[in-house]
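Recap from last week: sequence in, structure out.
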Amino acid sequence: MLAFSTDTQLDDGLTFGSMATDNAGSAREIVPGGKDQSGNGNLTSIPSAAIRANGADYVHYFNIRNWTGWIINYSGLYKSVDNGQTWKKCETVLFSANSNFGMVGYFKKDGYVYMMGTHAGRINPAYLARFKEADIENQNLYEYWNSTSSQWIPGNESAATVLINEKVGELSFVYNTKHNKWILTYFSEDRYNITMRTAENITGPWSSPYELAAGSAYSQLYGSYLHPLSATGDNLYFLMSMWMPYNTFLMKAELADMGDL
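Predicted structure tokens:
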């Protein structure tokens, strides 16, 4: 489902103004899943990121076959041209079940949409791609970062090399204009926390990990989706989930001078 918010004063929480609804006025599904419980078909579709490009809204999603092992069928895009009220599948963008962009994050900068991705799940390294905003529906024009050659390789997903070499879960990233740094957040299974890293250039080098929230303080935490207001100023706002009570919470971290982070 999809909620809308114009709230820019987040210190007292995040207020939603409306939802995408059905004819009865109830919140409705926007990215359909097949509800196949066999473990061998189309079970459900899960959004992992969203971006506005060329005046349209896009949601990246992955289609789950079986939650045991996070087995997916594919991942792709849905598009809305009426401010999120109705959505249609983009048939020209399709990532395979084995793609390293099964789950992604997006951020727009300097005419490009940067896309950081992982294989579906929470135990895989992160990779990097980009494309011109106008080319979001033309997957053949996506460029993949290859650190060996220090080049962006067009049209060849397999050329992407590892960007963050550890277990990266449900990543999110922004470019903070006050600190002039990229900020990446994600769930770290090994450290059992929400991790932050920073970089002056999106291709790296990325800083050592910094703990934003510890599992010892927030039991069964996961997810770390950055609010757009994190791209300016000293406040980092992110949405963090907890398995029990199976809910999502708005979190805030105050950025200092960041030093060598």
